[in-house]
Amino acid sequence: MNIIDTSSGTSSIDKSCGSIKNIPLFRTKGIQYQIDIHKFENIIFQSTSSAAFFIEYESLKNKNVFSMGKSTKDYLSKQGVKSVCPSIPGSTELKKLLSKNKKGGNYLIVKGENGLNEILNYLNSSNEYVEEINCYKRFKLESYENVRNEFYDADAIIFPSTYAFKIFFEEIYSTKVKAKLFGISKRIIDYISSYDLDSDFIDYFSKDITESIKDSI
Fold first, then answer.
1. What is the dihedral of CA 76, 81, 85, 91, to 10 degrees?
2. 74: which residues sit within 8 A by CB, 6+ positions away?
């Protein structure tokens, strides 16, 4: 079975899943930012890339750190930073987690340029003081010609972001694609549905992800 994971390298499924091939559809690049992190008690990382391009890990000591999902939590853990994340990745579940863990203090959101504003809007509507920094950009690849056939031959394609699906639809999708599509959150599934395509939810961090995909095809 040919399964493709379209995530960027920082958040892709563990390579021990031998039947899953990682083919990123975009690249990321760090950008400079300025922030006085000492005035914030709560730090929120919206993606694995936001954690990867953040450079002030030492300043996170004694902070309440939140992450969007398990891959971001695992990345931060490797940097010596403890964080909490929702069991299901995504803004909806993170908002629920934040509402249950309010300990006062200001919030800082670490994200990518043109990233989601759902958490920012939620905290603003809750009358919390919140700022955000962009620490990376996402770029489409120069060409997708050399990967199209791999998608045409795939049995399943996993989308950990709406941006990856958008690129897939614009640059790769055609009637030659026979694969079943999977999203790792309701937001991604709803986004795919807006293109009149069907997809199923997949637990991105399940130890049996390959078997789960096989069972659903």
1. -60
2. none
Domain segments of the chain: what residues?
A: 3-25+141-216, 29-138
**How high is the pLDDT of residue 14?**
52
- Looking at every residue in the chain, the average pLDDT score rounds to 92
What is 3-25+141-216's CATH number, 3.20.190.10, 3.30.1240.10, 3.40.50.10090, 3.40.50.2000?
3.40.50.10090
> 3-class SS at 89?
coil
Give pLDDT tens digits for 155-203.
999 999 999 999 999 999 999 999 999 999 888 999 999 999 999 999 8
CATH number at 29-138:
3.40.50.10090
Pairing of strands 156-159, 26-30: unpaired
pTM summary value:
0.85
Look up residue 190 and give its DSSP letter: H
Give every strand in the sheet of 130-134, ordered side by side: 64-67, 42-45, 107-111, 130-134
Can you read off the two tokens belonging to residue 103? 């300990």
